[in-house]
Design goal:
Pdz3 Domain; 2-enoyl-CoA Hydratase, Chain A, domain 1; seven-stranded mixed sheet; six-stranded mixed sheet; globular
Length: 721
C-alpha cells in the first residue's frame, strides 16, 4: 500500500548544482563509515536483486557513465579533457565496490566542484554585460548530441547563451530587468553557497545510486537523511502539498501529484511541471530554486498544515521558455477519505432519443487499511469494498455501463488489484508473480460471482502504473471490457525496502541508510508482462509523443519485456468485434468534434517540436509565439463556454451501417463558468460515449455482427481479428 501514504517524498536526489567558495575548498574523500555502507549495499544489490548482477567491467562502464550523468546531465560543467582524465576509472568502478573503496567517485566529484565554481564566476560576470535580444541567435538547451565541450571558450559560449536565455525567460514572464538581474545573481550565487552545505554523505549517495540505477531504474540507495524523509511520509505525519518531486536537468520537477492531497484539490499542478521558485504565505518573497537540490526544495515546500506556500511553475505543455504560473496551495495532510473511490453518472444519447446512464468509478489509488483488516474490523476501508458499494448505489440509479477511471493511478496494494478484478470476473487467476529465485506464484480471485457483469471500460493514461496495469491487463485478458486511453507506464516490477541498519555492526544503528531494491516481476495471466510495454489500449486516444519516449520504456537499464507460461484461466468473452466496431464509431464521432480537433492539433504541434533542442534568443520571436499561444487559449475557452451538454449530441448509433459523425451542438445560453466547470473532461465524456455504444451494440447482436462484417470487408479481416 504504497501510494496512499505519500505526502511529499524524494526517492533520489539526482544531482547537485553547486560550487564552493575558494577559501572553503574541501577535498572530499570517503570515510570508514561509508566504506562499511558500501560493503553492505554492494552485497545486497549484487545478490538479492531480481536481475542477475555481475560486478564486472561491463557494469563498471555503466556506473561510470551514470555517475557522470547524475552530476552533469546536460554536459554543462565538465570539459572533454576532464572525462579523459577520469578514463582510468571507467573499468575500475566494479573494483571500487568490491573493495569497499569509493575513492574514484570522490576524486571525480572534487573536479566537478572546481568546474561548477568556474561556471558560476563566469555566469555572474555575464550579468554585468549588455544583452542584445535583437541579435538572431539561439540557445541549445539540450546538449545531448554535443556532449562535453572541447575548450573553455566553447563552454563559455554555451554559458553566455544560457545566461541570456535565463534573462529572457524571466523578462517574458513579466519581471523587470532590475529584478531579473537580482534573481539571476542570487541563483548563480546559490550554486556557490550550496556546495558548502554538502558533505561526504551526499557524494556517497550519488555514487551508490549510480550503481543501483545501472542495474535497474527503480532500485535506489537512500542515505540516512533520505531515509528519514521516507519514514516521515510513510507515517502520514508530514504536512505539505501532496506531491512527489524529482529532478529534470536543473529543475525540480513534479513526478506525480498525490490523489486527494492539497495540490490535487487545488488542481493546477500536474506531473511534468517544473518548480522555479517557492514563496511562503501570500506575500513572502519567491525564492528562486532553479539548480537547487531536490531535498532542499522539499524543505521549502514543507510546512505546518493550514499555512500557504506559493509555487512558481513552468507547466509541462508550455516548454522551458513558456510563461510561469504562481500556484497558491494550502498545506495539509492527505486523508484516506480524500483518496477513496468516487462515483458519478454521465448521461449519453442512445437510440430513439433514449438516455443511457454510464457509471464512472474514479479510483486514484488501490488502497487497503491493512491494520483494520488484520484486526478483522467490520468497517475497515478498502478500494474493493468502496467500489462494490458505489456500483450497488449506481445500479439503483439505472446505469447500463461502467467506466473504471485509472488515469494517474500509480498503483498501491497488490491484494486490492486482485480483489477489485474479482468484482468483474467470476473466479480465476488475476496476476502471476515471479521472484528473484524464479519461483512463480499466482494471485487469484476466489470469490464466485460479479458485482458488475455489464458493459465495462477501463480508462488509463501514461501515468497508470503497477496495480493499475495488473487490473487493466486482467480485464483485457478475460475479455470483460475494453481498455481505453494511452499505453500505460509499463512498471511490472516489485520493490522491497531493506534497512541496512538491521545488518550493521553493533553501535552503527541509524548510520547505514536504506535500499529500495527490485525483488520480483508481475506477469499477466496470458503469460505476458506489463513490464516495459505497459498495457496497450483497445481504443487509443490521441497522445503526444511516442510511447517509447515515456514511462518504463524511456528509463535506462529498465528490465526488458519477457513472458512465462500462460496461467490456467477461462476468458469471460471475446471483445474483438466489440472493440473494432466501437473504435470505428469513436473515430467517426470525433472527426468533426471541435475539442478533439484542438487536441489533435496540439498533439501534432508537440510531435513536430519534441525533437527541437534549441530556442531562439530573439525577444520579438519569443513574444510573438507567446502571443499566439495566448490568443489560441482564449479562443478555445470562448468556444468551450458555448458548448452544449452531452445529451444534445446527435444519436451516435442511429445508423449502424455506416460511419457515424457527431458534434457537440452549441448552446448560446450555456455561458455559466460554473456549468462549464461541472462538465466531465473531454476524454471521460468520450469514454462514456464509447461505453454507450457498447450498451447499444450489446442489445443488438445482429447489428454488431453486421457492422463488424462491413468493417471486415472494408479494411481486411486480418486487421480486425
Amino acid at each position: 500500500m504504497r501510494a496512499i501514504k505519500f505526502l511529499l517524498i524524494v526517492f533520489i536526489s539526482t544531482t547537485v548544482w553547486a560550487a564552493t567558495q575558494p577559501a572553503e575548498r574541501v577535498m572530499f574523500k570517503p570515510s570508514l563509515d561509508q566504506r562499511l555502507r558500501s560493503n553492505l549495499a554492494t552485497k545486497f544489490l549484487a545478490n538479492w536483486h531480481y536481475k542477475d548482477t555481475s560486478l564486472d567491467d561491463e557494469l563498471s562502464e555503466k556506473i561510470f557513465d551514470r555517475y557522470l550523468d547524475l552530476l552533469d546531465p546536460n554536459y554543462s560543467f565538465f570539459l572533454a579533457k576532464d572525462i579523459e582524465t577520469f578514463s582510468p576509472y571507467r573499468l575500475n568502478m566494479d573494483d571500487a565496490l568490491q573493495h569497499s573503496d569509493p575513492t574514484p567517485a570522490y576524486e571525480i566529484f572534487n573536479t566537478y566542484v572546481d568546474r561548477v565554481q568556474e561556471r558560476v564566476v563566469f555566469a555572474r560576470e555575464q550579468l554585468k554585460q549588455p544583452m542584445d535580444f535583437t541579435v538572431e541567435e539561439s540557445y541549445m538547451w539540450d546538449r545531448s548530441d554535443v556532449k562535453w565541450a572541447n575548450t573553455d571558450a566553447e563552454l563559455d559560449e554555451f554559458w553566455r547563451q544560457r545566461v541570456k536565455n535565463d534573462f529572457l525567460r524571466l523578462r517574458l514572464a513579466g519581471k523587470e530587468d532590475e529584478a531579473i538581474l537580482e534573481t539571476l545573481d542570487d541563483r548563480y550565487e546559490n550554486l556557490d553557497r550550496r556546495i558548502s552545505e554538502l558533505n561526504s554523505d551526499d557524494i556517497f549517495q550519488f555514487f551508490m545510486n549510480a550503481f543501483a540505477q545501472s542495474i535497474e531504474p527503480h532500485t535506489a540507495y537512500m542515505s540516512p537523511r533520505s531515509s528519514e524523509n521516507f519514514e516521515i511520509s510513510m507515517r502520514l505525519s508530514l504536512e505539505g502539498i501532496g506531491a512527489l518531486l524529482g529532478r529534470e536537468n536543473e529543475y525540480t520537477s513534479i513526478a506525480s501529484v498525490v490523489p486527494g492531497g492539497p495540490a490535487d484539490k487545488e488542481g493546477s499542478l500536474k506531473a511534468g511541471d517544473k518548480v522555479t521558485a517557492v514563496g511562503q504565505g501570500r506575500d513572502g518573497k519567491l525564492q528562486d530554486v532553479v539548480g537547487w537540490r531536490v531535498d532542499d526544495v522539499v524543505d521549502l515546500i514543507r510546512g505546518p498544515k493550514h499555512t500557504i506556500v506559493r509555487l512558481e511553475v513552468l507547466h509541462e505543455d508550455t516548454g522551458i521558455d513558456g510563461p510561469t504560473e504562481i500556484i497558491e496551495i494550502v498545506r495539509d495532510e492527505v486523508k484516506l477519505e480524500e483518496q477513496a473511490a468516487k462515483s458519478e453518472i454521465i448521461e449519453v444519447p442512445g437510440e430513439n432519443d433514449e438516455i443511457v446512464k454510464i457509471g464512472v468509478i474514479d479510483l486514484p489509488v488501490f488502497y487497503l487499511d491493512f491494520n483494520g483488516r488484520a484486526r478483522n474490523l467490520p468497517d475497515y476501508r478498502s478500494s474493493t469494498r468502496d467500489v462494490t458499494r458505489l456500483i450497488n448505489e449506481m445500479k439503483t440509479e439505472g446505469i447500463e455501463g461502467l467506466i473504471v477511471d485509472l488515469r494517474n493511478n500509480g498503483g498501491g496494494s497488490l491484494l486490492e488489484a486482485t480483489t477489485l478484478t474479482g468484482l468483474f470476473i467470476d473466479e480465476g487467476p488475476v496476476v502471476q508473480v515471479r521472484n528473484s529465485s524464479g519461483r512463480i506464484s499466482t494471485e487469484e480471485d476466489v470469490e464466485p460471482g460479479m458485482a458488475w457483469d455489464g458493459p465495462l471500460a477501463v480508462l488509463v493514461n501514461r501515468y497508470s502504473a503497477s496495480a493499475s496495469e495488473i487490473f487493466a491487463a486482467a480485464i483485457q485478458d478475460y475479455g470483460r471490457g475494453l481498455v481505453i486511453g494511452e499505453t500505460t507506464f509499463g512498471k511490472g516490477t516489485v520493490q522491497n525496502l531493506v534497512d541496512l541498519d538491521d545488518y550493521a555492526p553493533s553501535g552503527d544503528s541509524g548510520k547505514m541508510g536504506q535500499l529500495k531494491i527490485t525483488m520480483a516481476q508481475f506477469f499477466r495471466v496470458n503469460g505476458g508482462s506489463t513490464q516495459n510495454r505497459g498495457v496497450e489500449p483497445d481504443i487509443r486516444f490521441p497522445s503526444a509523443g511516442d510511447p517509447e519516449d515515456y514511462g518504463e520504456r524511456s528509463l535506462e537499464n529498465a528490465l526488458p519485456w519477457t513472458s512465462i507460461p500462460t496461467s490456467s484461466y477461462e476468458p469471460e468473452g471475446d471483445m474483438g468485434r466489440m472493440a473494432a466496431v466501437a473504435d470505428f464509431l469513436y473515430k467517426g464521432r470525433i472527426a468533426d468534434n471541435q475539442e478533439f480537433g484542438w487536441l489533435l492539433s496540439d498533439v501534432e504541434e508537440f510531435n513536430r517540436n519534441k525533437d527541437k533542442k534549441e530556442v531562439s534568443l530573439l525577444e520579438s520571436e519569443r513574444r510573438a509565439e507567446m502571443d499566439r499561444d495566448e490568443a489560441k487559449r482564449k479562443a478555445r475557452k470562448a468556444a468551450q463556454d458555448n458548448n452544449g451538454p452531452l445529451l444534445e449530441d446527435e444519436d451516435a448509433l442511429a445508423d449502424l451501417t455506416g460511419p457515424v459523425e457527431a458534434t457537440v451542438d452549441e448552446d448560446d445560453d450555456a455561458d455559466s463558468e460554473d456549468e462549464e466547470d461541472d462538465r466531465p473532461d473531454l476524454l471521460l465524456r468520450e469514454s462514456a460515449r464509447i461505453v454507450g455504444d457498447m450498451v447499444e451494440l450489446g442489445r443488438n447482436e445482429s447489428a454488431l455482427a453486421r457492422q463488424f462484417s462491413l468493417l471486415n470487408k472494408e479494411q481486411g479481416s486480418e486487421s480486425l481479428h
